Amino acid sequence: MTGAAGAQLAATVDVGPSEADWAAAEALIRALPSTGRVLLICHVNPDGDALGSMLGFGLGLRQFGVHRVQATFPGPPEVPEPLRGLPGMELLVPAGDADPAPDLVICFDAASESRLGALADRLSTAGAALVLDHHASNPGFGTVNLVEPGAAATSVVADRLLARLGVTTDRAIAECLYVALTTDTGSFRFEATTPAVHQVAARLLATGISPGDISRRVFDTRPFGAVRLFGEVLGRARLEPAAADGQGLVWTTATLDDLARHDQPPYVLEALIDSVRCTAEADVSCVLKQTAPDEWAVSMRSKGAVDVSRVAVAMGGGGHRFAAGFTGRGSAEQVVEAIRGELGAALVSGVG
Q1: Which residues contact 229 (CB under 8 A, 6 or more apart)?
Q2: Where are the domains of the chain?
Q3: Using an 8 Å Cβ cutoff, are 259 and 266 in contact?
Q4: Which of 10, 12, 170, 235 is the most buried (most CB within 10 A)?
Q5: Phi then psi for 124, rounded to 5 degrees?
Q6: Mean of the pLDDT values across residues 91-107?
């Protein structure tokens, strides 16, 4: 990790928003005029936390009385099939149709400006920018930043701000926030699942949403073509037990040709990391998903011995200790070689 990147990460880890930050965020929204225009943006290739937090908050803004609300994300306007049933989908507009100069832009689950793609220009064209996130590597790129590394998901931050605004969590808002929470905690299996997380989940479930239906839709529904694709990609996985000073690395690649051969959209690959990370012999798991001839969207997970956010930050990305990502360039072998070079420096002291 470079010195600058390491210093940036150290400056943000475990430092949550102050009361002044929460008050400033609340004030930005309360100061909106009745005709105020708000643009909500989440990161490219949105997952459940990004989309659920954004749509849930958008519905909350409408309940609060802000009616000119758009929601969007960079890239093709394609929502992953498991998330298409979320309430609030009517708020979504293609990136090209997003307000070029809103009164307020609110960013969700984006660890850096780069995750906003071409929509990052709204940070300067909007009247103000509010950032809601839970990634420790987030440098705080908004006018006001609510970055809470201790939160299990960005939805926890969104939920707290809605409560400060006096918004009632109805079933529609609750479903969005619950999908966000359950996806980023891996169905409440990951390290960030605290008693407080279960308390939030209980309150959301009390609105009458169905956890069984949500789980089946979000986690247990996949096209047969994707099942075949997963089998092929997992079949080429490679295990390197000596990597990360003996903690182990397992990795695989999914190419554009793989997607075309099985007639699948790119979003189906987002769940692939869960099938790789269960490898007993490796602390670190990695999936390289090709996005262009020499470009890869890299997803990384750790069981705790390695802080993968340190690897991702060194590579120009971000995340937190147990989950992180970045965009890699070059051949797959070159990208993995760069990852190997950062693993030793990312070992967590006293673990292993």
Answers
A1: 254, 258, 259, 261, 262, 264, 268, 269
A2: 3-219, 224-346
A3: yes
A4: 12
A5: -100, -25
A6: 98
* 224-346 CATH fold: Diaminopimelate Epimerase; Chain A, domain 1 (3.10.310)
Note the pLDDT of residue 350. 63
- Please say whether the structural domain 3-219 has been given the CATH code 3.40.50.1100: no
Mean pLDDT of the chain: 93
**Cα-flanking dihedrals φ and ψ of residue 129, to 5°?**
-130, 130
pLDDT value of position 253: 98
CA distance 180 to 85: 13
Nearest to 268 by CA among 250, 286, 251, 254: 254
150 pLDDT higher than 80:
yes
Residue-wise pLDDT for 24-81, tens only, equals 999 999 999 989 999 999 998 899 999 999 999 999 999 999 999 999 999 888 899 9
Give the C-alpha separation, 261 to 226, whole Å: 11
Whether the full predicted model's pTM is greater than 0.90, yes or no, is no
The residue whose two tokens read 């470079």 is 2
- Rounded to whole angstroms, the Cα distance separating 48 from 236 reads 27
User: Which has the closest alpha carbon to 275: 297, 299, 246, 308?
Assistant: 299
Q: Give the confidence band of 13 by pLDDT, cuts at 50, 70, 90.
A: very low
In terms of Cβ atoms closer than 10 Å to its own Cβ (0-12, 13-18, 19+), residue 308 is buried
* Alpha-carbon gap, residue 225 to 227, rounded angstroms: 5
Distances (CA, A) of 28 to 23, 34, 350: 9, 13, 43
